[in-house]
Design goal:
39% of the residues lie in helices and 12% in strands. It has 296 residues and is of the alpha/beta class. The protein is globular and about 50 Å long.
Length: 296
């Protein structure tokens, strides 16, 4: 694992690329950023056709830490999960419907756990046991979904489950991002997943998305990273037809890729004394205390 900075630093950064496996173009971009020694970690979508392509590319980049990008909103599940899927098609409900059903208590906890286990197992059986877990559109953060996911992940030895609570001060002028952050913070509190442990992994990235504004927001954020380890959520990649069928965030990914791989960004990391790390680095990564408490 390549680290930026000539001396040990208390500021560590995991640059994680979400959506590895959603399309070939995204897969190519993520590996490009990993080969450039900027992206240190990626989260894999395992239930979509481009997963096979992601596996092939991952084998060429063994230093990349790989986790599960749990998917409950695009495509079909790996298991029979009636409460998560539309009866007419067998496909997952769209995000608004899933959230509504979760909020009304209409999701079966066993459906959630079983599908989560199946997605973890698909990665492990392919030779990549996940080092961490997050989810597409942060569905695992919902209070009606969180507990089953954390328990299922822990049963497979996955204890790093993303807590997507970005501080409200980060790019506070973006009201849409602030609204999303406030909603996820409320979810975390309802799920009992906030933590005051200074050693726990911090999270940023929600308010960086936005095409041309990505570089400005990212460069303003790096000097303000807190002491300890922070996960930076990113979405580098190349837009293609398959991506456009499944996600609205398309050409913006190419901007992210260009900025992350730029000389200016690497120089900024070095100037700020930021050391790159990953979820696979072990000793410097401490789970949130709520995650530890559930397994002692």
């Amino acid at each position: 694992m390549v680290r930026v900075g000539s001396t040990p630093s208390p500021t560590r950064l995991i640059i994680n690329a979400d959506d590895f496996g959603i399309s070939r173009g995204v897969n190519i971009g993520i590996i490009e950023a990993a080969v450039a020694e900027v992206v240190t970690s990626a989260s894999m979508v395992v239930n979509l056709p481009a997963f096979a392509d992601a596996l092939d590319r991952a084998r060429s980049c063994p230093a990349l830490s790989l986790g599960l990008h749990l998917n409950f909103t695009v495509g079909r599940p790996l298991t029979v999960s009636p409460s998560l899927t539309r009866r007419s098609t067998g496909e997952f409900y769209a995000l608004p419907v899933l959230v509504a059903r979760a909020s009304l208590g209409l999701l079966d906890q066993w459906d959630i756990a079983r599908e989560c286990l199946a997605q973890i197992d698909r990665m492990s059986e392919a030779g990549f046991p996940p080092t961490h877990l997050d989810s597409h559109r942060h569905v695992h953060a919902h209070p009606a979904i969180s507990s089953a996911v954390i328990t299922a992940a822990a049963s497979r030895g996955v204890f790093q489950v993303r807590v997507p609570t970005e501080p409200l001060w980060v790019n506070a002028r973006d009201w849409r991002a602030t609204l999303k952050k406030a909603g996820l913070l409320a979810c975390a509190r309802l799920s009992g997943r906030t933590s005051g442990d200074a050693r726990a992994i911090h999270f940023v990235g929600l308010s960086l998305q936005g095409g041309r504004s990505f570089a400005r927001r990212l460069f303003a954020l790096i000097p303000q990273l807190p002491v300890g380890t922070t996960e930076l959520m990113t979405h580098p990649g190349y837009a293609d037809d398959l991506l456009a069928e499944q996600d609205s965030y398309t050409r913006e990914r190419e901007t992210e890729l260009e900025v992350l791989c730029s000389r200016e960004f690497r120089e900024l990391l070095a100037r700020c004394g930021v050391m790159l790390t990953s979820f696979a680095d072990g000793p410097s990564i401490v789970p949130h205390e709520d995650q530890l408490a559930q397994h002692h």
